[in-house]
Amino acid sequence: MKKTKMLIKNYQFKNLFLKGKYYSGEYIESFIKSNNLNYNLLGIAIGVKIAKATKRNRIKRLIRENYRLIEKDLKTGYSIIFLWKKKKDTSYANFENIKKDIKTILNKANIIEENNEKIIY
After folding, report:
1. Is the per-residue pLDDT at 120 higher than 70?
2. Rounded to an integer, what distance in angstroms lies between the CA atom of residue 101 and that of residue 119?
3. Among 25, 31, 65, 85, which residue carries the largest CB count within 10 Å?
4. Angle at CA 119, nearest 5°, toward 60 and 23?
5. How far lies 91's CA from each of 15, 28, 64, 95, in Å?
6. CATH architecture assignment, domain 10-120
7. How crowded is residue 59: how many other Cβ atoms within 10 Å of its Cβ?
8. Residue spans per domain, the chain
């Protein structure tokens, strides 16, 4: 099984926040930018004020798993950051809500390959 490549360095996040294009779903926000590599990079940032550590880690796991399931259908060469919206309660953080939001965001960003679009809707 292929491991997802992650953004880890602070300067990578800052660069993406400044130069990336912003997309929004109902519960998740995203910044997406081309990275000129042959693979995608994923970053997940959940603010400390949103919830305690266990809930933040659960949201991260749900986002990571949903991304993993859809990763094979994405175009390569993008850096993507997913953020949980500050105004949304963490009780809405379930698998289906996050799945719907991620698909909405990636469709808006037009980084889902066209031959697989029928499957995703």
Report:
1. no
2. 16
3. 31
4. 45
5. 31, 14, 18, 11
6. 2-Layer Sandwich (3.30)
7. 23
8. 10-120
Q: Is the pLDDT of residue 116 over 80?
A: no
Q: What angle do CA 107, 2, 13 make, to 5 degrees?
A: 55
* Predicted confidence band of residue 114 (pLDDT cuts 50, 70, 90): confident
Torsion of CA 101, 54, 3, 63, to 10 degrees: 0
Enter the pTM of the model.
Answer: 0.88
All residues at 6 or more sequence positions from 77 whose CB lies less than 8 Å from its CB, including other chains: 34, 35, 36, 37, 38, 39, 40
Mean pLDDT of the chain, nearest integer: 90
DSSP string, 38-99: SS-EEEEE--TTTS-HHHHHHHHHHHHHHHHHHGGGBPSSEEEEEEE-TTS-GGG--HHHHH
Percent of all residues in the chain with a pLDDT value above 70, rounded to a whole number: 93
- CA–CA distance from 63 to each of 17, 38, 86, 115 (Å)? 19, 22, 16, 24
- Dist. CA 40–CA 30, nearest whole Å: 14
